[in-house]
Amino acid sequence: MDTNFPEARIVNSGEIDLAVYEQGDGPTVILVHGFPELAFSWRHQLPALASAGYHAIAPDMRGYGGSGKPPAVADYTVQKLIGDLVGLMDALSIPRAIIVGHDWGALVGWQMTLLAPERMAGYIALNIPFIRRPPINPVTYMRWKLGKDFYIVNFQRSDEADRQFAEDPRRFIDVMMRKRRIKRDRTSARKGKLKPISLLRMLETGEPAGEALLTDAELDYYAEKFAAGGFMGPINWYRNFRHNWKSTRRVAQQVQVPSLFIGATDDIVVPHKLIEAMVPFVDDLEIHMIEDCGHWMQQEKPDELNTVMLDWLERHYPAG
Q1: Which is catalytic among the residues 75, 103, 174, 267?
Q2: Structural domain boundaries, residue 102
Q3: For a surface tag, which of 59, 290, 305, 306 has the fewest beta carbons within 10 Å of its beta carbon?
Q4: Can you give the pTM of this predicted structure?
């Protein structure tokens, strides 16, 4: 286990308690994890940021780890998730912070640039680019384009995934957090499209594909936390796609917060065309791609990621 990972403290965000891990002093950087992760996913970034003169904060987000897990789907809207971050900042008397988001955390961060930009000094998005609000319900589009087995579609009206993931959390995390080389079929390769992902089918395979990214001790840590907390809360984030889409109908889709996007060349989740498509909608944007890296970049290429983040931070928000 990484001995640099700090102990949690509980901070009330105004609505729920958040388990918060922090290191260092200086300008505040808040690290927002995705699915199926924890604040622990930032264990390589917290000490690097602290050593560079930043106050690094990583909460277990709503529904995860040691944080509150309200029962209703409506408790996990993007407004609630942003509200937790704003409430955390208020509780710690932080007027503005640099936000760093990965996976679902990146989606929350991009929406925060639109809904609460006054609380953001800057934004760093990992893996997931800014995606402009579509003209139709995104779940309807995903069902039509990617099929009912696509994991986000499957999550909507069934608790099948909640139950199956919880039956063996250690195996689920082991299957998920692996390095996989990107695979495209011949017809889609030229267009940069990826094959739809079914997490339930991935679980059905024998030996998990790809190279394991976690040590046994790290895998045990994740498994223990998800065995205790389950997967209903984390999956409820996905069950608010329709609400989030409807509730942001009148929100201008132009990001004015200075932003850094860090992508990975072997990310099986994000087609490269989405990265290119965001450029006109982010006023102040830098893009950096990490080579030979997949979706879990904080844990797969931590040193390279830290170097890229710190270079941007030092140029935009120097610590000293």
Answers
A1: 103
A2: 9-316
A3: 306
A4: 0.94
